[in-house]
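Researcher: I'd like a candidate sequence for this fold, 292 residues long. If you have to choose between options at a position, lean toward the conservative one.
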């Protein structure tokens, strides 16, 4: 029965038009709209008179943004912080860009900023490229994983049409999931900065599924020279301990982000309450209103 209903649903025409009209009158609860997927381009409002286009391929993140809005659903606390931080950032890095939501926000709010984005999975990278083209943005997109060495590495992909969670040289899939070992290209930020004559970095988003310590190891020549504000995913205590060691004594403040429960300052980095942390200077924290 479920398969039949799914086939019927897939044949319904003009879902984007229909759902756009429905959204004006009524927002269904998540238990309903999680099944109301569609494909097509829709407009995402960031702030008044500032928006970007994005292609919905029928998957979770774009679907949640469509129904909830950019700042009320998926990673809402992180997104709201990112929006504030992008406005004053001149050089922005999005590591683990996926289809590019964070990069698109940055360029929408700050058209004069230089945005560099990295996404190693070929089919996901192509979707990101399409979103860049939709908006005619000059985002520098790189089909590589950022790591602590230059060359190649392995990701453990799946046969699905889209994927959110892969990392370098580590299988994150459950034991009953069939994975496909896939070679990807890697680059260190040390070499990328040197080759592209980059001497400044203001803002980072790092979402690389437990590979965050290796990313920062490969940025050792510039990290504390540039001292960027960093929105970073911390999925385990082990990753947290490694990141804490890197930043210990650096003057950075740590903020644990719970997307459903707010932001709290902590003295030590452990597994995030949700996904992300904000690492920043006291001046940035004060400007964001995060200090008590």
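Model: Candidate sequence:
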């Amino acid at each position: 029965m479920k398969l039949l209903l799914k086939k019927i649903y897939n044949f319904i025409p003009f879902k984007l038009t229909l759902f756009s009209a429905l959204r004006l009158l009524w927002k269904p609860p998540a238990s309903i709209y999680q099944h109301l997927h569609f494909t097509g381009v829709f407009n995402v409002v960031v702030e008044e008179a500032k928006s970007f286009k994005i292609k919905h391929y029928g998957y979770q993140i774009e679907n949640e943004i469509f129904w909830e809005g950019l700042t009320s659903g998926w990673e809402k606390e992180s997104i709201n912080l990112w929006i504030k931080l992008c406005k004053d950032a001149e050089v922005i890095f999005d590591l683990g860009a996926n289809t590019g939501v964070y990069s698109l926000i940055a360029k929408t709010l700050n058209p004069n900023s230089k945005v560099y984005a990295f996404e190693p999975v070929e089919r996901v990278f192509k979707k990101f490229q399409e979103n860049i083209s939709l908006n005619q943005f000059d985002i520098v997109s790189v089909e590589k994983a950022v790591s602590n060495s230059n060359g190649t590495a392995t990701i453990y992909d799946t046969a699905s049409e889209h994927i959110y969670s892969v990392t370098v040289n580590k299988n994150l899939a459950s034991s009953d999931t069939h994975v496909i070992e896939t070679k990807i290209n890697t680059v260190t930020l040390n070499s990328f900065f040197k080759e592209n004559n980059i001497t400044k970095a203001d803002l980072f988003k790092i979402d690389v599924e437990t590979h965050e310590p290796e990313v920062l190891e490969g940025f050792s020549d510039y990290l504390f020279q540039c001292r960027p504000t960093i929105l970073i995913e911390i999925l385990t205590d082990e990753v947290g301990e490694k990141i804490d060691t890197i930043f210990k004594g650096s003057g950075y403040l740590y903020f644990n982000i719970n997307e459903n429960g707010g932001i709290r300052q902590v003295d030590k980095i452990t597994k995030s309450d949700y996904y992300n942390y904000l690492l920043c200077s006291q001046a940035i924290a004060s400007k964001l209103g995060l200090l008590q």
